[in-house]
Specification:
By secondary structure, this protein is of the alpha+beta class. Helix content is 16%, strand content 41%. One of its GO terms (molecular function) is diaminopimelate epimerase activity.
Length: 260
């Protein structure tokens, strides 16, 4: 069987996108690992499939490069899916769809994909030497003086199962505050290496920088893979609404997967 796909990247976070309206893609951990392998497969941080969903334009499913199902909302992967849906003509310039954590909207404007995340209806929690927030996925964020010097193997990847996240894990971001922006590096669950960026990590870091360090919307986020911005409306008691992750998305190439 032959299955069309597109390879996408959003600020360096790369994904295999599959239009699964005909249910041709059948998930197995081994298949996901093979396709995401950077030497023996297509190579990607994960796979995102676009699925039919009654009452919505579509729904999306996310699979990590290690073969596991995505245990949280994927911001950059979702922005790539929205771009691909527009490219395929499944929607026009905007979409109303379902993801891991519920209903979302997004749109394309001025060559940027703008993705609306769920409101934060609880205060961000200080935890250890950092902060915890769930913005569709669990994030632990630490502020550091020089993010480039952080050893991600010992300070990031090794701490993803820290207490109290032993069971499901937590994504860890390290953030350097700069004059008018933040520099973010993230370790994600489901990856055994540091990706070039993380969409929900960028959002979590921007909201924490706003709550505790006074940054105002929009917050420019610098990553190893490029820049994006986070816009939001601050509410009393540390809550947020109208949260958008905004940035470029690129289709790298298209191809056909042969599934025997």
């Amino acid at each position: 069987m032959q299955l069309p796909f597109a390879k996408y990247q959003a600020i360096g976070n790369d994904f295999i996108l599959i239009n699964n309206f005909d249910n041709l893609f059948r998930y197995t951990p081994t298949l996901v690992q093979q396709l995401c392998h950077r030497q023996f497969g297509i190579g990607a941080d994960g796979i995102v499939t676009i699925e039919k969903k009654e009452g919505y334009d579509f729904s999306i499913l996310h699979y990590n490069a290690d073969g596991s199902r995505g245990g949280g909302f994927c911001g950059n992967g979702t922005r790539c899916a929205l771009h691909y849906a527009i490219h395929l003509g499944l929607v026009q310039q905007e979409a109303f769809f379902v993801a891991f954590d519920g209903i979302h909207t997004g749109y394309l404007r001025n060559d940027l994909i703008h993705l609306k995340l769920k409101d934060i209806d609880h205060a961000i929690q200080p935890l250890y030497t950092g902060y915890f927030i769930n913005n569709g996925t669990n994030h632990y964020v630490e502020i550091v003086s020089n993010v480039a010097q952080v050893n991600m193997m010992t300070m990031g990847l090794a701490k993803r199962k820290m207490v109290p996240f032993e069971k499901e894990g937590v994504n860890l971001s390290f953030v350097q505050l700069m004059h008018d922006s933040i520099f973010v590096r993230t370790c994600e669950c489901g990856l055994e290496y540091e990706p070039l960026s993380c969409g929900t990590g960028a959002v979590a870091s921007a909201l924490i920088a706003s709550s505790y360090y006074g940054l105002k919307s929009p917050v420019k986020v610098v990553t190893k893979g490029g820049d994006c911005s986070v816009t939001f409306t601050s509410l009393p008691d540390g809550k947020f609404k109208d949260i958008y992750l905004n940035g470029p998305v690129y289709q790298v190439f298209q191809g056909i997967i042969r599934l025997d």
